[in-house]
TrEMBL record:
Biological process annotations from GO: RNA methylation
Coiled-coil region list: none
Binding site for S-adenosyl-L-methionine: C233, A234, A235, P236, G237, N238, K239, D257, D290, D314
Lineage: Eukaryota, Metazoa, Ecdysozoa, Arthropoda, Hexapoda
Residues the record marks as active site: C365 (nucleophile)
Name of a matching Pfam family: Methyltr_RsmB-F
Listed CDD domains: AdoMet_MTases, PUA_NSun6-like
Domain called SAM-dependent MTase RsmB/NOP-type: residue spans: 135-439
Domain of life: Eukaryota
Keywords carried by this UniProt record: Methyltransferase, RNA-binding, S-adenosyl-L-methionine, Transferase
GO molecular function list: RNA binding; RNA methyltransferase activity
Protein name as catalogued: tRNA (Cytosine(72)-C(5))-methyltransferase NSUN6
Assigned protein family: Belongs to the class I-like SAM-binding methyltransferase superfamily. RsmB/NOP family.
InterPro entries assigned: MeTrfase_RsmB-F_NOP2_cat, MeTrfase_RsmB-F_NOP2_dom, PUA-like_sf, PUA_sf, RCMT, RsmB/NOL1/NOP2-like_CS, SAM-dependent_MTases_sf
Length: 440
């Protein structure tokens, strides 16, 4: 089967929700969402190490796997904490008819195309008699109809070839019906059709696997040592740690998230930063108009008005910028329509909490007008005290223009989408960044 040209096959109602004004861009956008960003990026914790040091480690790992064919690893001239890994040159692999098959769902398939291995919960089906250490063809099931644990070959026109791997587990370990589901790598990928090197995730306290726009986003916020910074929707904390690193861990970074389990999971990773405090808190209630700033009111949410120098609102969103998207989990327009409501509520709190002259960055990992440019247009109308400022450093393209957001304003935004290459010429996931300053 051919790769899909839209993550919403057969769902025109949903497609219609994505770009309502700039409809000419819709078809290229949908096709682009299905494709894999082929450059892998890591953010380097420059408080602990440097890009050159990490580069040496990654180069050695790649050489051990790919020898002479190892892809290029390089730093970026304008972002001093990013390490990039190019795709392999000649990945033109096809399914080998002599091999047995493993089937994964589309979420797992997307991760494999970006260089991951298959973890046990990701395996939907493995043919009977597959042995440990056996090479297998790996397919992703686009239809969602493959039965978990099935033993027969999954004959479907709706499966796409993703790559080949070597099994580390057998069927009885994967589908054992016990209270303790299997964990760990089930199939170690050897190759994939995207050509993204199969490294798994090398993240540790020195480097973090992170998409380039997420790294750019915190540079746009540009926090300064000694400042008081609020990260309103912080979990899993990837941008929170970046904020603290740029501030040299000096000042105060307050990380809020409404999900208790997500905060619990991010705490161990953030506890080595002196400047970060984390709270389980609903940020739609983060501002308390009647509080005066005192050491105690500043330490726990809700917070007094105008009590932060900078605020990052990396809002909950439809996540449609994630690439590749072989088939979207969002099936109904109503779900898409629900996000702007909470985004506006969070935004209104951010404006209250920001001090005069302070900086607010609004970002999403999605591509819909309603969650990106429309929120900016709404905010500029609703809060005359805000002015839009240039979202630099710039790696994505301009925002889209709308009837109430002219080109002079949309140029200040940063949208990562089809055809918007960053300075070094590679494509990323979809993302949106807007930067505001509160007029004193
Ligand atoms: C896009 S994720 C944030 C990613 C994070 N900034 C990072 O880079 O690691 C959005 C987060 O918003 C949280 N969230 C949703 N509604 C919220 C609310 N009302 N208050 C605080 N957090 C909320 C979700 O639990 C989720 O963790």
């Amino acid at each position: 089967m051919r790769y899909p040209k839209s993550p919403f096959v057969g769902n025109p109602g949903l497609e219609g929700e994505i770009l309502k004004v700039n409809t000419a861009g819709l078809a290229p956008l949908l096709e682009w969402l299905c494709l894999t960003p082929r450059v892998t990026t890591y953010r380097v914790n420059t408080r602990r190490t440097c890009v050159e040091e990490c580069k040496r480690t990654v180069v050695d790992k790649l050489a051990a796997i790919y020898g002479q064919k190892a892809p290029k690893v390089y730093a970026l001239s304008r972002l001093t904490d990013v390490l990039c890994i190019d795709p392999l040159d000649d990945e033109n692999i096809r399914p080998d008819p002599g091999l047995r098959e493993v089937i994964v769902d589309t979420t797992c398939g997307a991760a494999l195309l970006r260089g991951a291995h298959i973890y046990a919960p990701g395996v939907l089906a493995m043919e009977s008699n597959t042995q440990v250490n056996e090479m297998v063809n790996v397919f992703a099931d686009l239809s969602g109809k493959c039965k978990r644990g099935s033993t027969a070959r999954y004959d479907s026109s709706q499966k796409i070839f993703v790559g080949q791997g070597r099994t580390l587990m057998q069927r009885y370990q994967l589908f054992n019906n016990s209270d303790k589901p299997a964990t760990g790598v089930a199939v170690e990928m050897q190759s994939n059709v995207s050509g993204v090197p199969v490294l798994g995730d090398l993240s540790n306290s020195d480097i973090l696997l992170q998409n380039l726009p997420s790294i750019v986003c915190v540079h746009v916020l540009a926090p300064q040592p000694g400042e008081r910074v609020l990260d309103m929707c912080a979990a899993p904390g990837n941008k929170t740690s970046h904020i603290a690193e740029i501030m040299n861990d000096v000042g105060s970074v307050v990380a809020l998230d409404s999900s208790a389990s997500r905060v619990r999971n991010m705490r161990p990773r953030l506890c080595s930063y002196q400047s970060i405090t984390t709270h389980v808190f609903d940020s739609t209630k983060a501002a308390a108009a009647d509080l005066l700033p005192t050491p105690s009111t500043l330490s726990d949410p809700p917070f007094p008005r105008a009590s932060f120098d900078r605020i990052l609102l990396d809002a909950p969103c439809s996540g449609l910028g994630n690439r590749p998207q072989l088939s979207s989990n969002i099936k109904r327009p109503k779900i898409l329509q629900s996000y702007p409501h909470v985004q506006r509520r969070l935004f209104a709190q951010a404006v209250e909490l920001l001090r005069p002259d302070g900086i607010l960055v609004y970002s999403t990992c999605t591509v819909t007008e309603a969650e990106c440019e429309c929120i900016v247009a709404w905010a500029l109308k609703k809060f005359p005290e805000l002015r839009l400022v240039d979202a630099t450093p710039r790696w994505g393209g301009s925002g889209l223009s709308l009837p109430d957001l002219d080109v002079s304003k949309s140029r200040l935004l940063q949208r990562f989408g089809p055809g918007t290459f960053d300075g070094d010429g590679f494509e990323t996931v979809g993302f949106f960044i807007a930067k505001f300053q509160k007029v004193a």
